[in-house]
Amino acid sequence: MTTSKPVTDWATDWTHFDLRWVEDPFPIWEDLRSRCPIAHSMRFEDGAFFPSTYEYVREIAYDSDHFSSRRVIVREKKVELQPNPPITSDPPEHTAARKLLLPAFTEKAIQRFEARTRQVCIDLLDNIGGVESCDASIQYAQHIPVLVISEMLGLPADDGDRFRDWIHRLLEVGPTDPIVADKALQEITLYFVGQVADRKPGGHLFEASDLISFLLSAKINDEPLQESHLVGTLRLLLIAGIDTTWSAIGSSIWHLSTNPKDLRRLVNDPNLIPTAIEEFLRAYSPVTMAREVVKETSLGGCNFTVGSQILLSFPAANRDPSVFEQADRVIIDRQENPHVAFGLGRHRCLGSNLARMEIRVALEEWLRRHPVFSLKIGEKVKWSEGTVRGPRTLPVTLGKSEQVCE
Ligand code: HEM
User: Fold this and answer.
1) Which pTM was predicted?
2) CATH number (domain holding residue 312)
3) In the structure, how many helices (H) and strands (E) does the chain have?
4) Peptide bond into 201 cis (omega under 30)
5) What is the Cα–Cα distance from 154 to 145, expressed in whole angstroms?
6) I want to staple 309 with a disulfide (CB 3.0 to 4.6 A). Which of 48, 61, 71, 218 is the partner?
7) CA of 84 to the centre of ligand 1 (A)
8) Half-sphere exposure of 277 toward its Cβ, with a 13 Å CA cutoff?
């Protein structure tokens, strides 16, 4: 959780757990870009760097010789390595671990889940009903990716609370509390060991046709996956797809709840939704990853010693004014938008087709049902801490506009 000692200089003592960073990181990054584009902090074991420009984020993401993916979360205390292939794999192992998953996440494969996603959204909106206000994160955004990934993996739809609890403990509390992280990890591992056993001969899900069964029968170099690989990949698929997309849906609705002009434009011209989504992904990118230095190198005048951690902020890269004109403005019909919300290089997000489909359907259905809404005056939006950023509470008034930020 948020560390107690406040930051006095972001260039030499930053932490992304400071409440100011959690609530509004953009001015901090802007300041750093202008005076110290690669900041450093000793709050994290072996020290951690924070590159805030597009150029440095790109350079590190493409350089797996020096910057390993074996640690993808910056932590105050390092924990034992826990492989979750392919995201924690470096070359050469990465290639085969990723290739295995590609067919399940092509645009065509994802289309099969669109009707179900739409039904999930419609049901959630029906449950909210004709009230005057609701919480768009708690009652809507948080459920959509859980229900869709559960269907893909063949998991019980009503395990959602459990999944979100694991994610909170692992990604929000875990980086500063290794005991909490370890316990959550053990629980997820046990859960998937059970799910795998259920799909083996004699198990009650033998011959199921879900993604877990597919991976159980998959081979690398003609050998079935080792159980540690299989379970690690399943942990990744569960964790990678939930709070990321939940955050992206939430941030998009949050933006529209505070920008009535953009809201009206999207309601009047739903064809603009896909372009607007790319801009929301750029401006409110949810995912920040990490790397560990495995071979000494230097970049931007900084010496990267072995063992140092890197906070690899795709969100900061996406706000770099040397790449994006008016980077701090949200322009929902931005034409040139080479954002890196889904990462760069060999680890680029495998689930981007799924994420884009879920965000689009979630916005289409929300706007169809609630063409007028606004952030509820006097109530606070709570943003998540750590690796993934998005609103965890989002109180909105439905059917009338309370805010004018135009
Ligand atoms: C808006 C939603 C999402 C965002 C912003 C996002 C972002 C990212 C980013 C930045 C990476 C690169 C990690 C790195 O360089 O270390 C990544 C990797 C990955 N994402 Fe996503 N993601 C999202 C949704 C999803 C979904 C729905 C899934 C489906 C399960 C998914 C599965 C993965 C996987 C498996 C990887 C690892 C790929 C590899 O290492 O080769 N993501 N994601």
Assistant:
1) 0.96
2) 1.10.630.10
3) 16, 14
4) no
5) 14
6) 48
7) 12
8) 22
Domain count of the fold of the chain: 1
Task: Copy the structure tokens of residue 402.
Answer: 């309370």
Q: Which amino acid is at 71?
A: R
350 lines ligand 1 (CB under 6 A): yes
Pocket lining: 361 vs ligand 1, CB cutoff 6 Å: no
**Residue 69 alpha carbon, nearest atom of ligand 1:** 16
Say if 404 falls within a structural domain: no
Print the domain residue range for 32: 10-398
Which residue is it, tokens 């671990």?
A: 97
Beta carbons within 8 Å of 397's beta carbon, 6+ residues apart: 132, 133, 373, 374, 375, 376, 377
Q: Does residue 209 lie within any of the structural domains?
A: yes
pLDDT for 2 beyond 50: no
Asked whether residue 163 is assigned to any structural domain, the reply reads: yes
Mutational test site, ligand 1, from 349, 354, 387, 389, max ligand atoms within 8 Å of CB: 349
Six-digit token string for 209: 């046709």
The whole-angstrom separation of Cα 350 and Cα 343 is 10
DSSP class of residue 388?
A: B
Atom of ligand 1 nearest to the CA of 236: 35
Two tokens, residue 405? 């930020």
Write out the two tokens for 253.
Answer: 């609705």
pLDDT digits (tens, 9 = 90+) for 58-106: 999 999 999 999 999 999 999 888 899 999 999 999 999 999 999 999 9
Helices 178-198 and 160-167, packing angle to 10 deg: 140
Nearest to 123 by CA among 104, 140, 111, 100: 140
- The pairing of strands 302-304 and 67-68 is unpaired
Distance CA 42, CA 33 (A): 20
The residue contributing the CA closest to ligand 1 atom 20 is: 349
State yes or no: cis peptide before 92, omega within 30 of 0.
yes
Q: Copy the structure tokens of residue 261.
A: 């002009």
Q: Give the relative orientation of helices 227-258 and 273-283 as an angle to the nearest 10 degrees.
A: 110
Using an 8 Å Cβ cutoff, are 112 and 357 in contact?
Answer: no
Residue having the nearest C-alpha atom to atom 3 of ligand 1: 244
User: What does the DSSP assignment read for 50-96?
Assistant: EE-SHHHHHHHHH-TTTEESS--S--SS-------TTTT--TTHHHH
Residue 137 within any structural domain of the chain: yes
